[in-house]
Design goal:
Layout lengths: L14 E4 L2 E4 L5 E3 H6 L22 E3 L3 E2 L6 E2 L4 E2 L3 E2 L6 E5 L2 E5 L4 E3 L1
Antiparallel strand pairs: 1-2, 2-3, 4-7, 4-11, 5-6, 8-9, 9-10
Length: 113
């Protein structure tokens, strides 16, 4: 397991040290090593919706775009309200249950209600 922290902007783990900074190879974000050393490892990452509102566990959100479900003919329609979301680590930050099933969604397609 690497001791180099994940990117503070995109949360990807493809980072490397360069002088006094860490650099993310995926998004190009740079941040100082000192700041990373003081960061709380157990703190939840701040996840924001499409317009910049901070999301928390239990929030209600609305889809801002029609989303096709991979491997299925199901489409999640724009304007669908999702209650009681759960935030998780990874590329798809929001775990939720809807009438059509359980889904993992990206926060950039959601708006807090």
């Amino acid at each position: 397991m690497s001791t180099i922290p994940a990117c503070t902007q995109c949360s990807m783990e493809n980072t490397y040290p360069d002088g006094d900074n860490y650099i993310c190879a995926d998004c190009g974000h740079e941040w100082p090593m000192e700041k990373a050393a003081h960061a709380d490892v157990n703190a939840e990452p701040e996840i924001k919706d499409a317009i910049g509102n901070v999301l928390k566990n239990g929030d209600s959100v609305v889809l801002i775009k029609d989303l096709k479900v991979k491997g299925s003919s199901t489409t999640l329609k724009m304007g669908t309200k999702v209650k009681s979301i759960r935030l998780v680590a990874g590329n798809h930050e929001v775990d939720c249950k809807m009438d059509s099933g359980s889904f993992m969604l990206k926060a950039c397609y959601l708006r807090k209600v």
